[in-house]
């Protein structure tokens, strides 16, 4: 099993547990983080070596990434596992799948790349290199079915982990926050590059909102110690802001908040499952954006809008990503309780659709793939 980011590490850990129930003697090797290690996987090198964002940003790391991929492929071909399960991080993992599949190994990819949104030509390679695609969302499964790729819609493990109703008061108590008063959660991303790009405009928006609503308080979860230092350094420019920076616990932070201001990414799904009104913002490097904007075919950027098939939450990207615009969009949520209620109803419908034992469904689909003529099934 090969994961390249924190979200993939969580998915991989859950899948390992479900597979072990079906194959008690299974052994797991590959690349993963702390959660997959705790579930019993041996990682061939630290997952953090694969966590690089953007196009121009990746270029500097290409020699190392290519070296790691060669090393990983060589190791897998020497061990000949029954199945190679790649998880998200498609620019790296699909390259691994291509090479091992060509050598006769079975391949599963968990979490569809956004092939339905951009670079649709990749579907040919996926059809050739992937024996089974596991998708988190139903619209993805429909796309693969239309293109002749074996696929199973499994739902999202987070939809099982997060309750349909959220106790905001309990979340505030857990974080040591006052139970009363408006609260905005601010999530500027988990990578250093993201925080550097997004935090200045987020901070500008926070200052504008505080001037308009002096009672408004802010809470920011830092993904790790390095991000915490980076965020606190940025906040030093606005010492009067009532901000609490927490050590991780982003889900609890969002649960405690009335509104969430956040970077585009997988955390927006958590925001949806927590039924939180949100404003999604993002900015890429100029060269990266120029390339990506010519390739994207999707009408929406934010996962909540994609899943609801309509623009329910504001998406402020690139030139539209300004402190003034972010503050205005956040303010609308605080001033529009009827819109918040409608949003919660839409998000609840999606949550119910995504529930239903994703780990078990994924493990069952993999077990079915392995069933015909696999011989030994003692490791994955």
TrEMBL record:
Source organism superkingdom: Bacteria
Keyword list, A-Z: Glycosyltransferase, Lipid A biosynthesis, Lipid biosynthesis, Lipid metabolism, Transferase
Pathway(s) of this molecule: Bacterial outer membrane biogenesis; LPS lipid A biosynthesis
Signal peptide: none
Keyword Lipid metabolism among UniProt keywords: yes
InterPro entries in the cross-refs: Glyco_trans_19
EC number: 2.4.1.182
Record flagged with keyword Amino-acid biosynthesis: no
Catalyzed reactions: a lipid X + a UDP-2-N,3-O-bis[(3R)-3-hydroxyacyl]-alpha-D-glucosamine = a lipid A disaccharide + UDP + H(+)
Any Pfam family: LpxB
Family: Belongs to the LpxB family.
HAMAP family membership: LpxB
Function: Condensation of UDP-2,3-diacylglucosamine and 2,3-diacylglucosamine-1-phosphate to form lipid A disaccharide, a precursor of lipid A, a phosphorylated glycolipid that anchors the lipopolysaccharide to the outer membrane of the cell.
Descriptive protein name: Lipid-A-disaccharide synthase
Organism this protein belongs to: Alloalcanivorax venustensis ISO4
